[in-house]
Amino acid sequence: MRRSMEMLEISEAHPDAPLIQRAAACLRRGGLVAFPTETVYGLGAHALDPRAVARVFAAKGRPLTDPLIVHVARVEDVRPLVRALPASAERLAARFWPGPLTLVLPRSSRVPDLVTAGLETVAVRVPAHPVARALLQAADLPVAAPSANLFSRPSPTRAAHVRDDLGDRVDLILDGGPTDVGVESTVVDLSGAAPVVLRPGAIAIETLRDVVPDVREHVPAAVRADQAHASPGLLATHYAPRAPLTIYAGPIPAALDRLLADAREAGARGQRVGILAAADDVPRIQRADLSSSRLFVLGPRSDDATIASRLYAGLRALDADADVILSLAFDGSGGLWPALRDRLRRASARVVTV
Ligand code: TXA
Ligand code: MG
Questions:
Q1: Alpha carbons 226 and 12: distance in angstroms, whole number
Q2: How many angstroms is it from 185 CA to the middle of ligand 1?
Q3: Is pLDDT at 170 greater than 80 in this prediction?
Q4: Cα separation of 159 and 34, whole Å?
Q5: 10, 174 Cβ separation under 8 angstroms
Q6: 23: closest CA among 33, 10, 9?
Q7: Predicted TM-score of the model (pTM)
Q8: Hey, whose CA ends up nearest to atom 7 of ligand 1?
Q9: DSSP states of 35-94
Q10: What Rg value do the Cα atoms of the chain yield, rounded?
Q11: Phi, psi of 167 (to 5 degrees)
Q12: What confidence tier does 232 reach under pLDDT thresholds 50, 70, 90?
């Protein structure tokens, strides 16, 4: 019989070597280890062991049509997994690895079909988090690791999020504290004629352009949940809290007035209301004097890095004790804004444009 899950603290600056060895041994045996990366926590498994990979899909309740990212310690470790490393990949790797960039490349036959959902490409990344790096080096394996959340729930940015979602379905959780970036890696497809961003993420597209000037944004086509997608980040509902999230878009004072009016109405119906807010809006919200509402402050409205680092924790905190969640749209150009817009929209049940 399988032993139950263990969650153990590990220092980000100086990962404890015996604990890393234990986690690495667990991966080699086909176990599941959740570990921090600079973006979100990953749920790791031996990428070349189809039984271990199957456990990842089962633990998350993830459809087999949704391919996984393979994490490795060094650029050299990518070579056996791909048919070729194009010059653009070498340039991107030299500039952004280790770091929050995922490259989609034509795969070699060593990569199990289960990892790639039968696609002819494989997604690879070299993470920067010291715990992830130490684990990958010690395991000396490619590690398939999706975000360590239940399928379609917000990604975990703290070890407790992993425990809440997965509990005993995972063997070991390495608790390295809150993750730094808070949104997932940028996924760039290099398997076609020109590089395409399949998922906006931690590295801004304008930063990628320094290295690959011809990189394009993906234009989403309609996707069906029963197919292997170009990138299942494209599923309409993803990252969603259980309590329905309504986003209020439009000029801020008017959108905030509408949000507060709806909050008051929901409260009057007996619903517990959660409000996701920018620090700038707190005085106005407090003046509205809403009883039975809970506020989660993401950060200053112009601060994309702080908002990104707190977004998933905010959705989860409000989800725990609200029936409905209301938020203004968060917006800006460049930086993390495209990723934030994308995640908030996917988490939402409804957008109200004022
Ligand atoms: O920051 C991250 O990328 C985190 C950490 C743990 O590394 N991982 C993560 O994995 O977000 P996951 O499984 O939640 O998201 C993987 C994304 C999905 O949108 C998936 O469709 C895409 O990568 N992907 C994986 N393999 C692909 C492939 N062969 N072609 C296109 N997209 C692929
Ligand atoms: Mg995910």
A1: 39
A2: 8
A3: yes
A4: 8
A5: yes
A6: 33
A7: 0.95
A8: 42
A9: EE-SSSEEEEEETT-HHHHHHHHHHHT--TTSPPEEE-SSGGGGGGGBS---HHHHHHHH
A10: 20
A11: 45, -125
A12: very low
